[in-house]
Specification:
The chain is an alpha/beta fold. It has 22 helices and six strands. The structure holds a DNA duplex.
DNA sequence: TTTTGAGTTGTTCGA
DNA sequence: GTCGAACAACTCAAA
């Protein structure tokens, strides 16, 4: 019996229930479909580079049998079924609104033509339709969601091993060269970025082990300090399914003594579950304010401000360091993501969707659920959002969370010689100290593009205006 | 149904 | 320098 295993965001052979199911039935056709628009629209540039590298690794794990085809899933599957005589198709479930729609239609079409279809849970600890309140409605606050998951929902299953024997079939007639992912012209940039990472299942496991051995013991405190190696950096591996959340959960439970650091890290994994829960139950999350009274929010328009933010040229060192890290590596430390997010949305008063889109294109861990839920959280319009008056001060944040400047100096070499006392506010630095450090404001490093105090007050006023507008509305209603 | 307690990550001001 | 209060009420979750 021949079964097609359709890989998507599960680019691994261990703890892959769809692959295990296919293997148990006989011959397996491993297939990846590059869906229309995926190369140009759905996936950002950094993610696409990761995907290409990860597919190559998966192909190695499958003895070169991975079939990569560009096209609509229904027609690709129909063609591969014709070519191979496969009688079943299996996959691990996806949860993005468009993916759900595609998978639903594909399943219906296949079943209608007499093909067996089997899907599995592999990318989440708990299905979003299970992690709901007693009355069946979705959670909108993280803490009760988390408590309920830990106390009431089934303990995450143990990971399943890699199939002991894989009878792989090749369908070489349909294989597309990796160059068709459209990366050829971006080679130098991609090569530079990928120096920071090892995409693929083995790389993911190496990272997990390194984190457990070295970062986890100081995670609860250290995770706030971007100069430390105290975060896991597993996010891109998790996004592409090179490692599953239950593999991580299981490794934590079996290899780490119970302590606050472990609990805190697992909580972050549950935040991911919460984001998927929100996206599933509120499918407009990527584009619409979850709190609809934000719909009239007076966002500014400024392509200059946006460009300065994107390029790491705002004149605020901790912000610029973060944006440069993002550009160079496809990643940004979590603490810094909050700082740059707050700066865009509150100090620059630019729409959170602009930040969401830039992150989407730049991040190797770009993930629709996490990205949209997190940007809405930062902007204050999401579930369980930060109060709007919580506006990060980039000077204070830098001094507090990168006191020695190790992170900031790494990504802003032009400020490396500035003393700590002025690193986060070079505009207050005495001219002699500036010139000793080789800094010329407005030349080697920009002047601040906005002033902190007025921009903070402007943001608070905008929030106030929105509130007043809303109360007028409710009075009318 | 009503009530009650609680809610990721901050900053500023004034004592 | 340190500390508590104010910031803004509002919605959510569960008893």
């Amino acid at each position: 019996m021949t079964t097609i295993c359709w890989f998507r965001q599960d680019l691994r052979v261990t703890d892959n229930p769809a692959l295990a199911w296919a293997a148990s039935r006989g011959q397996v056709i491993p297939l990846y479909i590059l869906e229309p628009g995926e190369a140009s629209v759905t996936l950002g540039g950094a993610s696409l580079a990761w995907l290409e590298a990860s597919l190559a690794k998966l192909n190695d794990s499958l003895d070169g049998a991975l079939c990569v085809v560009e096209g609509h899933p229904e027609s690709v599957l129909a063609q591969v079924i014709r070519d191979t005589g496969a009688t079943a198709v299996t996959w691990n479930r996806r949860y993005e609104p468009l993916a759900i729609e595609t998978d639903k239609e594909t399943m219906a079409t296949l079943k209608a033509s007499g093909v067996e279809v089997q899907s599995f849970k592999a990318g989440l600890l708990w299905e979003p339709w299970v992690s709901v309140k007693k009355d069946g409605t979705p959670y909108r606050v993280f803490t009760p969601f988390c408590k309920n998951a830990l106390a009431q929902l089934p303990t995450p299953e143990a990971p399943i091993p890699r199939p002991s024997a894989l009878n792989l079939a090749r369908t070489e007639s349909t294989v597309v060269e990796a160059s068709s992912l459209g990366l050829a012209d971006r080679r130098p940039w991609v090569q530079r970025m990928l120096k920071y990472w090892v995409p693929g299942e083995a790389g993911a496991m190496t990272r997990l082990n390194a984190f457990i051995d070295q970062g986890l013991e100081d995670y609860k405190r250290g995770r706030d300090f971007p100069a430390l190696e105290a975060v896991s950096r597993l996010s891109p591996h998790i996004h592409f399914g090179e490692i599953s959340p239950r593999q991580i959960w299981h490794a934590m439970q079996t290899r780490v003594e119970g302590d606050a650091n472990k609990e805190h890290f697992l909580r972050e994994l549950i935040w991911r579950e919460f984001s998927y829960h929100l996206l599933y139950h509120f499918p407009t999350l990527p584009t619409e304010n979850l709190q609809t009274h934000f719909d009239g929010f007076p966002w500014m328009t400024s392509s200059e401000s946006l460009a300065a933010w994107q390029r790491g040229m705002t004149g605020y060192p901790i912000v610029d360091a973060g944006m440069r890290e993002l550009w160079a590596t496809g990643y940004m430390h979590n603490r810094v993501r909050m700082i740059v997010g707050s700066f865009l949305v509150k100090n620059l008063l630019l729409d959170w969707r602009l930040g969401e889109r830039w992150f989407w294109d730049c991040l190797v861990d770009a993930d629709q659920a996490n990205n949209s839920a997190s940007w809405q959280w930062v902007a204050g319009c999401g579930a369980d959002a930060a109060p709007y008056f919580r506006i990060f001060n980039p000077v204070t944040q830098g001094e507090k969370f990168d006191p020695q400047g190790g992170y900031t100096r790494r990504w802003l070499p032009e400020l490396a010689q500035l003393p700590d006392a002025y690193l986060y506010k070079p505009w207050e630095c005495p001219p002699i100290v500036l010139s000793d450090a080789g800094v010329v404001l407005g030349d080697t490093y920009p002047h601040p593009i906005v002033e902190l105090k007025p921009s903070r007050e402007r943001a608070l006023a905008a929030y106030q205006a929105m509130k007043d507008h809303r109360s007028v509305h409710s009075a009318e209603g």
